[in-house]
Amino acid sequence: MPCPAGLAPARTAGEYSGVLRGLVLGLKEHHRLALVRPLGLLLAGAVSGLIPESPDVPVVLVPVPSRPGSTRRRGHAPVRDICRRTASVLRRQGVDVTVAELLRMGRVEDQRALSAAGRAVNLAGAMRVDGRRLARLARSRPAAVVVLCDDVLTTGSTAREAQRALAASGVDIAGIAVVAAARRRSVRPTAKVQQESFHRLAFGSSVGAWSQSGSVDATAGRPLGAPAPTSMP
Questions:
Q1: Which of 27, 63, 168, 176 could lock onto 79 through a cystine, CB 3.0 to 4.6 A?
Q2: Residue from 196, 179, 129 nearest 15 by CA
Q3: Which pLDDT tens digit goes with each residue over 42-70?
Q4: Rounded distance, CA 12 to CA 41, Å?
């Protein structure tokens, strides 16, 4: 709070503190795989806030990838696993939803010790879309509501890079759903003004409107792999 500038609309289940922080760290750092279930339920609530109540097209959840070294160390991919549980929850609610691991992460440093500026530099150009997976997804689901998913939103650098990589491949997103979000302790007024100006430019007055023409609501679904939106920074 407020949402970092440059991002599509974001939804979270709550603040990254207390019990919620403990749940996320329990899965990621302590290998408590049973926590996938409650975390998936929490993420489902965030996703539901970004999609139509009864979507006319399928919903695709795209997990933000971890660093390859982190995945090997943990022996599992937490965000992917949470997304799969979220998809299961939403299917029981009648939503046609799938999880698509479209994003690939290159070599980057561990983010934990980096400042917000350092994270942005570290992640710049680090992600790409797997073209073969995108092509297969586009064949099976010619149009879809795409939601980018992660466990925690902090400075926004990771989500911004994932959003950039998807947009470069023509994948528009309805928004970003996360389990938890960090509260920003201080924000300069100029940064807030810049953020509000960006959202007016990129999204207009309608939340979720982010497309090449500026008149298509991303929550209504659009063809996968279409030309990249021009409104991305």
A1: 63
A2: 179
A3: 999 999 999 998 889 999 999 999 866 55
A4: 12
